[in-house]
Amino acid sequence: MQIRxxxxxxxxxxxxATAGSASAQTFPDHTIRITSPFPAGSGPDAVARMVGEKVAxxxxxxxxxxxxxxxxxxxxxxxxxxxxxxxxxxxxxxxxHLAINPSLFKKLPYDPxxxxxxxxxxxxxxxxxxxxxxxxxxxxxxxxxxANAAPGKVTYGSNAVGGxxxxxxxxLEAATGTRMLHVPYKELSQLYGSVSTGDVxxxxxxIASAGPLLxxxxxxxxxxxxxxxxxALPNVPTLEEAGGxxxxxxxxxxxxxxxxxxxxxxxxxxxxxxxxALRQDDLLKRFATFGFNPYPATGAQIAEVxxxxxxxxxxxxxxxxxxxx
Length: 325
Description:
Blueprint: H1 2-26, E1 32-36, H2 43-59, E2 63-67, H3 74-81, E3 89-94, H4 95-104, H5 112-115, E4 116-126, E5 128-132, H6 140-149, E6 155-158, H7 164-176, E7 181-184, H8 188-197, E8 202-205, H9 207-215, E9 219-224, E10 251-259, H10 264-277, H11 281-290, E11 293-294, H12 299-320
Parallel strand pairs: 1-2, 1-3, 6-7, 6-8
Antiparallel strand pairs: 3-10, 4-10, 4-11, 5-8, 5-9
Helix pairs in contact: 2-10, 4-12
């Protein structure tokens, strides 16, 4: 009797394994949904749609982008983490959701490592130091001098306490030994509008978020907070070239994640389709317009980046005393 039961159990397990294999082999056979914590029209949303179009062609199935902004990304993340790990429900996420929030919130309603599966990288981008084009700050040296002359009076803005823009600016503050005042905003449009009018002295900015005000002559980019110039704005010096501290590196990355326990074969299928999309010339040209660098990372590489960046940002959160609770 025991032998018969053992045999039956083995057959059942074989059936489950075969069904899982068949599911992976037939993936995808209907619409793939990418839930996004970013508002429609934002840089990450635009990239998701660009890449989604290419992936839809490669996989012969529609790819739907579903924006669910708000609550520090919790709404979108909670939606995806509760879904079956079939590959049909994916999450758009950035460094803030995956490497900063664990230090920013005492009770984070998700665990990036335990609740999600890394699927594919999308892009990286660097931040610039932006000031009003017609304001008194004309260089990085001017900014540092002004901060030294009036501690706590020079202001910098961001769109979220403890977010990438806030912590990027805090790096510059710490590296220069200055003390400046952080002013948080709810929307990027409000933030850069305030910088352009001089209501706040400066802010970290990307080409995607502040490019229109730069192009219209209302903002000036003093330097890029990275170790190399951007091909999109080659005339803007690095922070070190402009006379600032070389150790400051303010960047962000955006990736695709899925629910935990996604089948490796399904992850590989999506990853390959995304990587192929990120090599196509028309998409690369559109990326370059926004200063985005393709980031065709594997799931394992994304997991490693999260592990490396989490303690680095934890130190910055501690230094600034930032808390979102």
